[in-house]
Design goal:
heterodimer, A: 327 residues, mainly alpha, 73% helix, globular, B: 299 residues
């Protein structure tokens, strides 16, 4: 198990390293410099000074080696546009994205599992078909569009929820009191619900299939034959095994959450990683772009690693042998 | 519009009559929403092809710039957008762009994915290892992020380049799927027989292995088109997809977004169109899976 973990970790680091390298070169080979855009170039003198400061007057491979050396020391460089270290900018944004992703995951799995189990129990009947089709429709929606519609209905028309931002800028610039925590959660509801609903639609589909698979097995009938209550049979005996495929979904949820976050954070003016990355890309802020790519790919790889490890823990039939066959 | 609906119905009915004679055809239409999904797809394909006939106004025509954001009415079926363009007309022309991007990008992705997966699965050893590590890296990079970088950093991207990029970043999953298929197929007797007869690697892969792996590729392709369309919509929404005056469903949502509070229709209908088409593609993909799986023969 330890050897397997070490090998997987090494492979993960290699993947992240490759992503950073690709991003670094793609970003630098692209058109444009930090000297403004083609329509609005900066004066050449300013550009030269900027270049000296950020080291972009040196050959590319020197820059690459310098970047990697700094990275090894935990330094992600300095942002061109924000006038602060990239690490600081990321550190400000990460908690916001993390809270959003966590809340979305909560909605995703709580709702997805409940609906999936309900569907499996009522398989083929009206409840199952109705929930299934609604889930399929929600799963087919562009996530940012669902956000816009929820915003329109609950923010604009009904005025139940605020229309954007992470908090009330006047009364609660920082979360430092119970009232402000409530305010934060109130702001969090719609974006988390949007991401969570789309995720829940997919989770429900998988959970239904997994539950149906298990329900037909002999040991479930044995449990019923013992005279256990149906509720106990389903929620204790069947669910335990039906949860396995969900672990895979958990690993897959990370890329989805990030993709969703890029769009959802734009819709809801949520100051997280996604918005930071999009703005950095639009402003050609290379160090921030590379830093964000590093962080997101690390999270995706970590998600897969956690999912694999959870699998091994949850299912004793999956024996992890020294390292082989686990890719 | 009614004409398009009737035509779509006729197409679906004809198709149904044709394929009901075969077992896979019957399995396809046994799926509860396959017929409906096929109808939705046929409808949107019809209006896309017949766009100049179906759309009452040209897609860029600004009808009355002094009075934009007209609500849906008999004259403007789905209202007009903030630039005073007819939403229904743009939706019709946008079907060409959005469906086209989805289909072409998926074709690119499926081709590359199949090629890479087949080569990796057939030759194994270091070829397999190298290619699959590449796929690992590809899967670790959030796709929308890669696309955003590529599109934003190369200024003013052309439509064909955008489609190519969406396809080029979408083949990783397919290649894994195909590799798994090929790995198991290459051990079968008929492949050994073909090799024993002196067939080269190319011939074995194309004539013997891949035809037997077609079903999962087709199913994942059908399901993948929807993803491509959602991705295009997301990019366009961020202002980095299809360049603005051209109507795609994604940038129609983006155009109407900021005035959603006063004119909900110009963002809502294109989003609804995407949802419907993606849902239809999912239903058809599911039904195809049922139809093409020979193990379901007995059921």
């Amino acid at each position: 198990m330890v050897a397997w973990l070490v090998r997987r970790l090494a492979a993960s680091i290699a993947i992240v390293f490759a992503v950073v390298t690709i991003t670094f070169f793609v970003v630098h080979f692209a058109h444009g410099t930090p000297c403004g855009t083609a329509d609005r170039p900066l004066p050449p003198e300013v550009c030269r000074q900027l270049c000296r400061r950020f080291g972009c007057d040196k050959p590319l491979w020197v820059q690459y080696v310098k970047y990697l050396t700094a990275l090894a020391h935990g330094d992600l460089g300095e942002s061109f546009g924000l006038h602060r270290p990239v690490a600081d900018a990321l550190a400000d944004a990460i908690p916001n994205t993390f809270t959003l992703a966590l809340a979305a995951l909560l909605v995703d799995f709580a709702l997805g599992l409940a609906l999936g189990i309900y569907q499996a129990v009522r398989a083929g009947r009206f409840g199952d078909v109705a929930v299934g089709n609604v889930a399929l429709l929600v799963n087919s929606m562009p996530v940012f569009w669902l956000g816009l519609v929820l915003l329109l209905v609950f923010g604009q028309w009904l005025r139940w929820f605020p229309v954007g931002g992470p908090n009330n800028p006047v009364l609660c610039p920082h979360v430092d009191s119970p009232y402000c925590l409530l305010d934060f959660l109130w702001h969090l509801t719609l974006p988390a619900l949007t991401l969570g609903l789309v995720g829940a639609a997919a989770t429900a589909r998988y959970q239904r299939a997994a539950m149906l698979d298990v329900i037909r097995q002999d040991y479930v009938w044995t449990a019923r034959a013992k005279g256990l209550r149906e509720r106990r049979v389903l929620l204790v005996h069947a669910l335990r095994n039906a949860l396995l495929p969900i672990i895979t979904l958990f690993g897959l949820a990370f890329p989805f959450l990030f993709t969703g976050a890029v769009l959802i954070e734009t819709v809801f003016a949520w100051p997280g990683m996604g918005r930071l990355a999009v703005n950095a890309i639009l402003q050609r802020d290379y160090p921030v772009v590379t830093g964000a790519a590093l962080l997101t790919s690390a999270m995706v790889v970590l998600g897969n690693l956690i999912a694999d490890a959870l699998y091994a823990v949850a299912d004793p039939r999956i024996r992890v042998r020294g390292g082989g066959g686990s890719a | 519009m009614a004409g398009a609906a009737v035509l779509a119905l006729v197409v679906v009915a004809a198709l149904r009559r044709r394929v009901r004679a075969t077992a896979p055809g019957r399995r396809f239409f046994r799926h509860p929403t396959a017929g409906l999904g096929l109808f939705v797809l046929a409808f949107f394909v019809t209006i896309a092809i017949a766009a100049p006939v179906v759309a009452p106004y040209p897609p860029h025509y600004q009808i009355d710039i002094a009075h934009p954001d007209r609500p849906p009415s008999a004259q403007f079926l789905l209202g007009t957008d903030p630039f005073s363009r007819d939403v229904w007309s743009r939706l019709v022309y946008g079907a060409r762009v959005s469906l086209g991007i989805g289909a072409v990008a998926m074709l690119v992705a499926a081709t590359i994915g199949t090629a890479v997966g087949a080569v990796a699965g057939y030759f194994r050893r270091w070829v397999d290892t190298t290619l699959m590590r590449l796929v690992d890296v590809g899967l670790a990079m959030p796709r929308i992020f890669v696309l955003l970088m590529a599109v934003a950093l190369w200024e003013h991207i052309a439509l064909w380049a955008l489609v190519l990029l969406i396809g080029l970043t979408g083949w990783f999953g397919t290649s894994r799927l195909v590799r798994a298929e090929v790995l198991s197929l290459r051990e079968r007797e008929f492949v050994a027989a073909a090799r024993a007869l002196g067939a080269g690697a190319g011939r074995v892969i194309f004539r013997h292995v891949l035809p037997n792996a077609a079903a999962p590729i087709i199913v994942s392709g059908a399901l993948g088109i929807g993803n491509m369309m959602l991705l295009e919509a997301g990019l366009s929404f961020l202002g980095l997809g299809v360049p603005s005056p051209a109507p795609s469903w994604g940038n129609m949502i983006a155009d109407g977004w900021h005035k959603m509070a006063v004119a909900w229709w110009s963002s809502t209908f294109p989003g609804l169109a995407i949802s419907l088409v993606v849902m239809a593609l999912n239903a058809v993909g599911d039904a195809l899976r049922d139809a093409l799986d020979p193990r379901k023969e007995a059921a």
